[in-house]
Design goal:
Blueprint: H1 3-16, E1 24-25, E2 51-65, E3 73-90, E4 96-111, E5 114-120, H2 132-140, E6 144-149, E7 155-159, H3 161-169, H4 174-181, H5 186-193, E8 209-217, E9 223-238, E10 241-255, E11 266-281, E12 286-305, E13 313-334
Parallel strand pairs: 1-13
Antiparallel strand pairs: 2-3, 2-13, 3-4, 4-5, 4-6, 6-7, 8-9, 9-10, 10-11, 11-12, 12-13
């Protein structure tokens, strides 16, 4: 398996586990909400017919230590996606059906000052069109996933994942698809849509804190564990909206997949730390902006082919990746 493809797959998982543009729709209107003097419930809202557009950008710096090389390989990556969320209908039990559509995708990569990839699905002349990961990203655009939420905004079921995999598989880019297929599972999309996991479990006021624990499945590479403490710092105007400013910090670790085959690919996350800020607008019931910084060391172990024996597994190779990434998730439009 190509090392760059594998690292890109993990980067996707790290950045999409969260979910500068001009605001439009309700975001461009001045907030009419007046913060209360005491506690209030911060709850997501999904009114029927609403359409939300969200943008995610990630900037990442990596130092990759490979066996037999005296100096680390330095690589910078940028990645972005924009997707729409449309509330199709309300269910009799108070839940909602929400459709996600991938609208655009972009990715850039440089190593030693040399541009390896510069891809933007909205530009037909983007460099890197023949790159397997870029080609795969282009096929994501236009894919649709349906989410069925219960009255508490938890995801009950997901539809459309198989159709998306068939779309990505067309063209025979198996090297790029293999690691991503194990991640873009139904469980992955459930985690991606379960934004209510960051919300406080009860009414809160400035100064209150609450824990958030997330387990993010990554197939045979194990499970990513995120353990945060959220603090409601204060009420604050963010653009034209009156928001609850929430700050968070915590750790990122991992645990192996108990069903993984001995001698297969495995991953360990060490010294993982994260911190950030979110602004939640209780009037429209959405987090409108999130900014997050992560530092971690990631060790990937993978078998190398035995010399002179085609298809035979050789010794295990360890790849260490010292990573820093900054993630910005912005609500672009609410209509």
């Amino acid at each position: 398996m190509n090392k760059n493809v594998l690292l890109t797959a993990i980067t996707l998982a790290l950045s999409l586990s969260w979910m500068g543009c001009n605001k439009s729709g309700k975001l461009a209107e001045t907030s009419t909400f007046t913060p209360p003097n005491g506690p209030m419930e911060l709850k997501l809202k999904w009114p029927k017919g609403e359409r939300v557009v969200q943008d995610m950008d990630m900037k990442q710096k990596m130092e990759i230590f490979l066996p037999g090389q005296p100096a680390p390989m330095k690589q910078d990556m940028t990645m972005g996606q924009q997707y729409g969320l449309k509330v199709l209908q309300e269910t009799p039990d108070g839940g909602h059906e929400v459709e996600m559509e991938f609208l655009s995708a972009r990715m850039g990569s440089t190593m030693g000052g040399k541009v390896l990839l510069d891809y933007d699905s909205s530009k037909s002349s983007s460099a890197g069109q023949t790159n397997p990961v870029a080609s795969m990203f282009g096929k994501i655009v236009g894919s649709k996933i349906q989410f069925f939420l219960d009255a508490s905004n938890a995801v009950e079921r997901v539809e459309g994942v198989d159709a998306m995999m068939d779309r990505l598989a067309s063209g025979g880019q198996a090297a790029a698809l293999a690691p991503l297929k194990s991640m873009f599972s139904e469980g992955y999309f459930k985690q991606m849509m379960s934004a209510n996991r960051f919300m406080p479990p009860k009414a809160v006021q400035p100064g209150d804190t609450w824990p958030v624990q997330i387990e993010f499945p990554m197939g045979p590479m194990g499970t990513m564990l995120m353990d945060y403490t959220f603090t409601f710092e204060k009420w604050e105007m963010h653009g034209k909206r009156n928001c609850a400013r929430m700050e968070f910090q915590g750790t990122v670790t991992s645990k192996p997949d108990p069903a993984a085959k001995s001698g297969g690919i495995s991953m360990s996350i060490l010294d993982g730390n994260t911190s950030g800020i979110s602004w939640f607008d209780p009037e429209i019931g959405k987090t409108i902006d999130t900014s997050m910084n992560q530092d971690m060391k990631m060790v990937i172990k993978m078998p190398m082919p035995a010399r002179g024996k085609s298809g035979a597994a050789g010794q295990m190779q360890s790849i260490t990746n010292q990573m820093n990434q900054v993630i910005e998730i912005k609500l672009v439009s609410v209509k």
